[in-house]
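Much of our argument rests on the idea that a fold can be written as discrete symbols. The amino acid sequence and the backbone structure tokens for this protein are reproduced below:

___
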Amino acid sequence: MAEMEREQKRYTYRDLVRRLYDLEALAIPPQAGEKSGCFSSFDRRSVYNAETGLYEDWGANDDGGGFIRKEDESIVAMELDGPGVIWRFWSALPKEGHIRIYIDHSDTPVIDQPFQDYFDRFNQEDAPSNFPNLAPTLSRGRNCFIPIPFQEHCKVLLDKGWGAYYHITYTTFPSNVQVPSFEGRIDKESAIALAEADRILQQRGTQYFKKAEGASDESVTVTVNVPAGGKAVLFDKQGAGALSMIRIRTDIGRKSEEQQQSLARQLAISMKWDNEEHPSVWAPLGDFFGSAPGIKPYRSLPLGMNEHEMYSYWYMPFSESASIEIENDGTEPYEITAEFQYTSLMKSTTDNLLRFHAKWHRDEFLNLDTERFAEGGDRWPDWPLLLTQSRGRFCGVHLHVYNTWEQPEEEAETWWYGIGDQKTIDWWWGEGDEKFFVDGETFPSTFGTGSEDYIGYAWAAEPPFPMFDSAFASQPFVELDANGHTSVNRFQICDNIPFMTSFEGYIEKYKGNQWGLNNQCLYAATVYWYQERGTSDAYMPVSLNERLATKNNGRNY
């Protein structure tokens, strides 16, 4: 930890690359001047009216071509003072028009190439790029997580014919931090660091990284029988330390689909740090580990599961105690085996670290004025992911969508329900933009272009509908025709969102819970974040009836 804190003053390129996979760094409190956000092509009709205090055209959805301003025939997609780093480029449709990146007020761009080549080429070489985990294509969405640092200033231009839809996520650091300004080519040492990172991300879900670090972790394995209607303690540690791995082994994944769906929601995991009254972590078991309904195998960097076990590599510090319990709201006892990896630390170290939080909810608006968020209100269609007060870091979300509809009588001319505007039913749920307000912002510093774009894929309103996974984003499950369950994750590790006093995260939800006589669109979110030791969040455990909200046909959701 002391080493990471020293890195706050000066970063080498290797240091920045390490941030791609360093889960321990998420527990370091942000400092004044550290800020993350996203520049995107969102519809610029959406504005905040300071005179009225209201939002206008807040659900505007022409999100393919927004920009800051024009320079000749090019658009300025991003402009930002440093020191800072671009973590991620994403696009749904990069084309031949050039991307030009200017660093530290230079008149000569360090990058000047077709936008599609930014995702396909590395270091201006002719051969295709060979970092499948740093630059994944996820169901047609192009992603690139190769850091671009700058000390004084960065400007990104997209020339005519660049394509449509972009996201650029970034972090800026306090003014006294030194970073190596990107010069257009990556030297041998930096390329090796990227290759090592790509390999670590490929090994996600294993103990590869910890073994490579030579960590002196302690481990404990327990097997418990959780009584029906009762609880069982999985982990109870006094003193100071940090959990770095949790593995839960059950036979849920070998049950029938209906049994899986019930068991994964009937069992809930809760975690308390430092003898707190209310848990910092509470979620149905399957949802906490990043998928629903039931067991849907996938591998990401912090979370994953298969038919035999679920794993978590979130870093979880504590100063006085750590307690982890399983609750069983079902009617039968259930046996669980859990393995934990932890390190004993000095209390003086853990006192200064953030605490891990994760909460599951459905339609929890807390103290918001819900009328403003209902259709016709100025905040519609925002749906709250996380509302919290304190200092901390937002690190991502698992979103379970149950979107179902009656089959239309009309037969579509193209596969499933048609394409574009020629659909027999307007079924798509995922147009909703993510909007993150940090420290009381009136306009969000992250404003996206669609739910699937936030995850990292694209064009999901048209088939085929694949399942995919990667280090930072996954779709562990979607129905073959998209009618029913969809499970998606987006984990913000390098591009986590630091906040000093508050965080409000929303994602737009255009479809109501009931959007037709027999049509439903229900969201359930598990949100992952860190916040200051000794502070609490407002989310409370949710009853079994609400967790198992029924469908119109009486089956469990």
About this structure: The domain at 205-353 is CATH 2.60.120.1390 (Jelly Rolls). Confidence is low (pLDDT under 50) at residues 1-7, 551-557. The two ends are 42 Å apart (CA to CA).
